[in-house]
Structures are given as C-alpha cells and as structure tokens.
Design goal:
Number of strands: 12
Distance between the termini: 61 Å
CATH superfamily of the largest domain: Type I PLP-dependent aspartate aminotransferase-like (Major domain)
Bound molecules: 4'-deoxy-4'-aminopyridoxal-5'-phosphate
Strand content: 5-15%
Shape: globular
Strand order of the largest sheet: 2-8-7-6-5-3-4
Number of domains: 2
Radius of gyration: 20 Å
Helix content: 25-40%
Number of helices: 12
C-alpha cells in the first residue's frame, strides 16, 4: 500500500506517436554529417567503456574553455542544460527563485520539485523583461532566471534590462540556449559580474539534442559550488567526446545557423501578421492551429495561459516549413496576410 506516500507532480510531457513532421521541440532539423559522427566514433573507440568518466568532466570543460578562451574553472558541463538548471535552483541562499513568464518551464519545474517557491515577474506586452520590476522583487531571491532569446516568445532581451537585474547582485541565470541564432551573447560579462551565470546547450544550433550536453559559463566560485552538489558521473564519455569533436566544426554550425535563420525569416514573412519576430530557431504564431496541424501530421507546441490560442513552431527543413505553411493557409484561410 503506497497510497498517499508518493508525492504528486505534474510530469513534464511531450507528444509521442507516428507523426510525419516534428516541429515541437526546437531541435535542429540537421543531423550531424556522417563524417563528423565517424570522428566521434573514432575517438570513442580509444576510450575504456568499463571505467567511469572523469569525475568533474574535465575533457569536455577543456574543449569548451579553449573555444571561449576561458579557464576550465569558468565552465561546468551538464547532461543537457536541464541538469544544470536542476542544480541552479538549489545552489544559492534565499527564499524563492524569480522567473519571467511566459518562459521556459523547467525553471519552475525544478523549483517546485525542490519545494522552492517561484515569484513570477511577467514579461511586458512586447515580451521584454522589466529590469526594475525584477529588482523590486529580488530582495530575498535565491536566483533569477532569464531566457534570451526567450522560449516560447523568441525575442532577445534588452541588454540594459539585464544589466539592471545584474546590478541587484543576486545570482542571474541568463539562459542563452538559442544565442547562436541571435548572433548575440552576453557571456563576456561574466568577468564584470560574478553573479552572472550563462547557460548554453549543444541541443539547438549544434544539432546534438540526443547527446544531452549543456554547459554554463560563470565565475570560479559558482562553478566550484556546482561541482560540490552535482551528480558525479552524469556526463558520460559519449557526451564528452561529442562535445570535443563538435567544437572542431564550428564553421559547419555557423553555416547551418545561417540557413535556419534564412528559413525563419522566409516563414515569418509568409505568415504575415500571424508570426512574431524571432531571434531563435522557432516562431511564435498567433493561431489556434495545434489540432488542425496535428490532423495534417505536423506536431508543433501548443501554448496556454497568456499565450492560449498560440503555437510555437520550430524552423525545420525547407519542405517541412512549406508543408507547415500550406497547412496554416488551409487552417487560417483569409487571416493569412501576405503569402509565398
Ligand atoms: N533552456 C531553454 C530556454 C530551452 O528552450 C531548452 C530546451 N528546450 C533548454 C534550456 C534545455 O536544453 P537541454 O537540456 O537540451 O540542454
């Protein structure tokens, strides 16, 4: 009899099934080319599978540190950036975390899992953060989470607003999962602001969501603190090897980012007034099209709350985007301004 003993949590759900077009998880539509996979396999062949991975992920941290010209002491690696979020909600002293809805759900998911209260400072009408409003709520905050570009709205957050939040001195996690598509990152501010934590991932622009590799850039003290609480072997040799090899191929990532951004802009134009501007690899679309798209074998992200009646669509391959547009045209009918 375990009735009443298991705590009840709202699970993190994704759609599963045999659909043709998947534009729901902001993945890259491009898999790694076979040659790069081979390079990863070659490296892996040399490694002993019977041994645990290096306990504080040094091989991967060294590759990332070298890429940025930082010290390994400024880099922590996680099994996806989600794992790092699960630590960051707990790492600091204070009563609650601050989030800025509508935003990425995992900040409040992990906070609630750890019974940490969440104070919400909603985004403004144009989906930008209000630095002063956040600062007003920051007094007893453990940490403040800001995504830039934000998911699911797609916009970069203004630097001056982020600076206002950093000036509170509270730990600020700037989640830049989509920064490569925006062409802007504030990672260099970690020198000036020891309370800034930059969160990045290999799941989006690098096209390695299946590998589970995320990282953060921050001051030495914070990185050191992470490694005091982190699951010791959560980043395996496959993830570390993939990171090392992927960073050798930054030029390919840049090419693909360019292609995705071009497709994003093409799609946005075609959607006319239905799509919001985006600095990421997805578009927020003001159309209650989730069911209609699913019927046409296209999976997108259904949004709720303030974004009820909106969907978030990941930029896919050209043919996928065309199929999506065709379906939207059928669903929206006369509402679709512009067109291909
Ligand atoms: N941050 C944001 C804003 C995201 O959208 C995502 C993925 N959907 C993540 C972090 C997590 O990425 P991962 O765990 O794959 O690194």
């Amino acid at each position: 009899m375990i009735n009443g003993l298991v705590k009840s949590f709202q699970p993190y759900r994704v759609v599963e099934g045999n659909y043709r077009i998947w534009l729901d998880k902001n993945e890259s539509p491009f898999d790694l080319p076979a040659e790069i996979k081979e390079e990863i396999f070659e490296e892996l062949r040399k490694l002993p599978f019977n041994r645990y991975p290096q306990i504080v992920s040094l091989p991967a941290r060294e590759s990332i540190a070298e890429f940025y010209g930082l010290s390994v002491k400024n880099v922590a690696v996680g099994n996806g950036s989600d794992e790092l979020i699960s630590y960051l909600v707990r790492l600091f002293e204070g009563d609650y975390i601050i989030t800025t809805p509508p935003t990425f759900g995992m900040y409040s998911f992990y906070a609630r899992l750890n019974e940490i209260p969440v104070v919400e400072v909603p985004l403004g009408g144009d989906f930008t953060v209000d630095g002063e409003a956040i600062a007003e709520q920051a007094k007893n905050a453990r940490a403040i989470f800001i995504a830039s570009p934000n998911n699911p709205t797609g916009n970069l957050q203004p630097e001056e607003e982020i600076l206002k939040v950093l000036e509170t001195g509270k730990p600020v996690i700037l989640d830049e999962a989509y920064a490569e598509f925006a062409g802007r990152s504030l990672w260099k501010l970690i020198d000036e602001y020891p309370n800034l934590i930059i969160l990045r991932t290999f799941s989006k622009a690098f096209g390695m969501a299946g590998i589970r590799a995320g990282y953060m850039l921050a001051g030495e003290e914070i990185v050191d603190a992470i490694y005091r609480i982190k699951s010791p072997f959560s980043v395996g040799i496959m993830t570390m090897t993939a990171i090392k090899v992927a960073l050798r191929h930054w030029n390919l990532v840049e090419e693909r980012v360019k292609e995705i951004v071009e497709e994003r802009e093409r799609l946005r134009k075609a959607l006319g007034g239905l799509a919001y501007p985006s600095d990421a690899n997805f578009l927020l679309v003001k159309l209650d099209a989730y069911e209609g798209l699913l019927k046409r074998d296209i999976v997108v992200r259904k949004l709720s709350g303030r974004l009820e009646g909106h969907v978030r669509v990941t930029i896919g391959r050209k043919w996928e985007n065309d199929t999506f547009l065709e379906a939207v045209r059928e669903i929206a009918g006369g509402d679709l301004v512009g067109g291909l």
